[in-house]
């Protein structure tokens, strides 16, 4: 089980309102108590923070906001002392516009080797004042920005699939490939156990940069029934990961690569985890599946088949720093498309129903064979912050979409540790880079620890049983897959989730191991509840 730490929102040691590496180190025991095997840290490298650190200005250092390289070394060492593995984020699709390479590219002439590290093109139209193609940015607006020459005259355009502060690199350039191999070595030598690879499906673009004509969906890959977009999931990316895999395999200790690739269908995604490529890929199809028995059955079956076909473990994820937290998402009417943020004035989810379903969904997920990824705070049942004042928003999506999309701030709010402390124990002061809602107290770790039935204890017990029964390495056998109830067996543990309205009976003689909510007086499983049991 891999636990995602979003460093700016996990724990703030120095009280400036932004989480930092010493804060994480000081809280590692929490993760051990919870039952985590590995942590994945979102970026902490020097960055202007145009996209919360996914705009990297130097791949071999730590931003002073988060600490120093010595703090990173200490975090890795202290994690290893506790048996926790450490995965860091690698952002190879783009650099920050503050990266030395991009500044050199701006200072150099069109056609120069400096510009050839990025995707610079002359503009269209008679004066070159139209973007080179019709691609739009994932965050809204055009995917091209025009640069001005040293004399102030308008010049070429550069591609940025995300923010203008995130120019896309040209991966056809051997210099880029050599540089990233060296960045990998830098962190492998410091002892990290692996990398989560950002936008792994985007590095290679179709050579002709053909127009796409479709709106760019936020971080969506290609769907089965549409032609493949010219910017995503091009076959050329796989060669890059094969080269990285050879490098990782030359290190001891089983270092891993995890693809962030928003690619559908599952068979295309499975190509990223063929035996000589990455080890795992996030399963976003699972994250996006509706809360119905047939939809969950279909996505679980497809995911297992696709990864089995290449011999890789399946992965499961319900929340991360880019999506509405599942405790809120599942409180929206079933079938609602995944919203990009929820704010004041938007339809609000049913909070109690969302939490009930989230607990059932998490318990279902944690019984599945494969690797489960948790996002910090979900073990507290934390909801999305859905009344964040728009002035507080920092995700570039909000501005770039012309205020059409609220963006991802609501899932990134600093997490509560102690109900009665300043910033709910996030740091020693009241400072918090995004305001925490008043109801955060009830979710604080110290309000849930040792409290029977709390979400924190639900996760702790689930993770203990998952480990004891080897569920992550098990095999799934379906027991039933109806319209309302799903049931499967993984080793000694049987699982039943009730998606319907009426209570569902357990098989006679079942011995209850764990449940996301109390059973009925008759011992049946109520609506929106998952139970783990041992069959008679
Ligand atoms: C995916 C990351 O998870 C997201 O937060 C970021 O905005 C984009 N990649 C661009 O780096
Ligand atoms: Ca701090």
What are the key terms here?
536 residues, alpha/beta, TIM Barrel, Oligo-1,6-glucosidase, domain 2, Immunoglobulin-like, 8-stranded parallel beta sheet, 5-stranded antiparallel beta sheet, 16 strands, 14% strand, globular, binds 1-deoxynojirimycin, binds calcium ion
How does this structure look, described?
The chain has three domains: 2-94 and 174-459, Glycosidases (TIM Barrel); 100-159, Alpha-Beta Complex (Oligo-1,6-glucosidase, domain 2); 475-534, Golgi alpha-mannosidase II (Immunoglobulin-like), CATH 2.60.40.1180. Helix content is 24%, strand content 14%. The protein has 14 helices and 16 strands. It has helices spanning 21-26, 28-34, 69-81, 100-107, 174-189, 237-249, 266-270, 284-288, 293-308, 326-329, 351-365, 396-400, 445-448, 455-468, and strands at residues 2-5, 38-41, 85-90, 120-121, 144-148, 154-159, 194-197, 256-259, 280-281, 315-317, 371-375, 476-481, 485-490, 493-498, 511-515, 529-534. It is globular and about 80 Å long. The model has no long low-confidence stretch (mean pLDDT 96).
């Amino acid at each position: 089980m891999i636990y995602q730490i979003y460093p700016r929102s996990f724990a703030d040691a120095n009280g400036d309102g932004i989480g930092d590496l010493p804060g994480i180190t000081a809280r590692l025991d929490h993760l051990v108590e919870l039952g985590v095997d590995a942590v994945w840290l979102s970026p902490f490298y020097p960055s202007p923070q145009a996209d919360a650190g996914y705009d990297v200005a130097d791949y071999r250092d730590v931003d002073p906001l988060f600490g120093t390289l010595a703090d990173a070394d200490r975090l890795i060492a202290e994690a290893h002392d506790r048996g926790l593995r450490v995965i860091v984020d690698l952002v190879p699709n783009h650099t920050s516009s503050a990266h030395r390479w991009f500044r050199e590219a701006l200072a150099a002439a069109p056609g120069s080797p400096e510009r050839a590290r990025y995707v610079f093109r002359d503009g269209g139209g008679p004066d070159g004042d139209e973007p080179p193609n019709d691609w739009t940015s994932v965050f809204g607006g055009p995917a091209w920005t025009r640069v001005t020459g040293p004399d102030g005259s308008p010049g070429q355009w550069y591609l940025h699939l995300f923010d203008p502060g995130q120019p896309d690199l040209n991966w056809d350039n051997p210099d880029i490939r050599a540089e990233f191999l060296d960045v990998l070595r830098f962190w492998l030598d410091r002892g990290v156990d692996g990398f989560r690879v950002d936008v792994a499906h985007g590095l290679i673009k179709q050579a002709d940069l053909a127009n796409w004509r479709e709106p760019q969906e936020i971080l969506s890959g290609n769907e089965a029934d549409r032609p493949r977009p010219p910017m995503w999931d091009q076959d050329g990316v796989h060669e890059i990961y094969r080269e990285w895999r050879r490098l990782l395999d030359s290190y001891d200790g089983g270092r891993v690569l995890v693809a962030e690739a928003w690619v559908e269908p599952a068979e295309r995604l499975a190509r990223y985890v063929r035996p000589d490529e990455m080890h795992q890929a996030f399963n976003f199809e699972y994250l996006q599946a509706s809360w119905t028995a047939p939809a969950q059955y279909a996505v679980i079956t497809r995911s297992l088949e696709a990864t089995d076909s290449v011999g890789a473990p399946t992965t499961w994820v319900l929340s991360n720093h880019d999506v509405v937290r599942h405790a809120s998402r599942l409180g929206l009417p079933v079938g609602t498309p995944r919203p990009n943020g929820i704010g004041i004035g938007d339809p609000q989810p049913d909070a109690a129903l969302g939490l009930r379903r989230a607990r059932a969904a998490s318990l279902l997920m944690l019984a599945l064979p494969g690797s489960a990824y948790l996002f910090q705070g979900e073990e507290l049942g934390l909801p999305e912050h859905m009344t964040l004042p728009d002035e507080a928003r920092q995700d570039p999506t909000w501005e770039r979409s012309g205020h059409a999309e609220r963006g991802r701030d609501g899932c990134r709010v600093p997490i509560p540790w102690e109900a009665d402390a300043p910033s709910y124990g996030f740091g020693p002061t009241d400072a918090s880079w995004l305001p925490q809602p008043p109801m955060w107290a009830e979710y604080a770790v110290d309000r849930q620890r040792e409290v029977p039935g709390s979400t924190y204890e639900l996760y702790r017990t689930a993770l203990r049983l998952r480990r004891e029964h080897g569920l992550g390495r098990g095999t799934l056998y379906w027991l039933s897959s109806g319209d309302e109830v799903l049931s499967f067996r993984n080793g000694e543990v049987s699982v039943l989730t009730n998606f319907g309205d009426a209570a569902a009976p357990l098989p006679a003689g079942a011995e209850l191991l764990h449940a996301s909510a109390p059973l009925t007086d008759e011992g049946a499983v109520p609506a929106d509840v998952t139970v783990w049991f041992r069959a008679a």
